[in-house]
Amino acid sequence: MAESPSRVPPDYLTVHAQLYADKPAVVDDRPGAPAPEIWSFAELNRQANRLANALQGLGVVAGEKVVWCGQNSLGVVRMIHAARKLGATAVPLNYRLSPEEAAYVIDNCDAVVVYADAEYAELLRKIRGDVPKLRHVLIFDGPGAADQLDVTRLLAESSAAEPVVARTQGAGETMIST
Fold first, then answer.
1. What is the pTM of this model?
2. How many domains does the chain contain in total?
3. What is the CATH number of the domain that holds 94?
């Protein structure tokens, strides 16, 4: 039996963005960066909404798997929240895996999208033929291959409004491969 709309909990990031809009939510202070980048709860929510809407535009629906790959960054936090907002399952991909191991994880979890830092674009290009269920590879924080989608462009073309998702759908999940 599906939950009634009144019993589905609100998205906690959306609530925090309403209550603490200007408070810092995430700080990216990696060594070598010119200055820390700070997103407020409102900005993190806008970023997550844009990515969730972009993913919906690519056909991602609740229950599907989206793999993410990258070191700790604002882009990774954005993906985890976007997947949850859609009711999708976020699957982290260890960036230290061999090409064969990465292809196995992506294929075995039935991922439809991989969202990866540009540093791993070449790895994903090499294994693309080994993951036939994969519909799209999205690359953030830099350029990817010609057949990979640029997250910066997708975000610019997507709405920052809350994604429209069936309210009977619960929050997304996380699947971890070891």
1. 0.91
2. 1
3. 3.40.50.12780
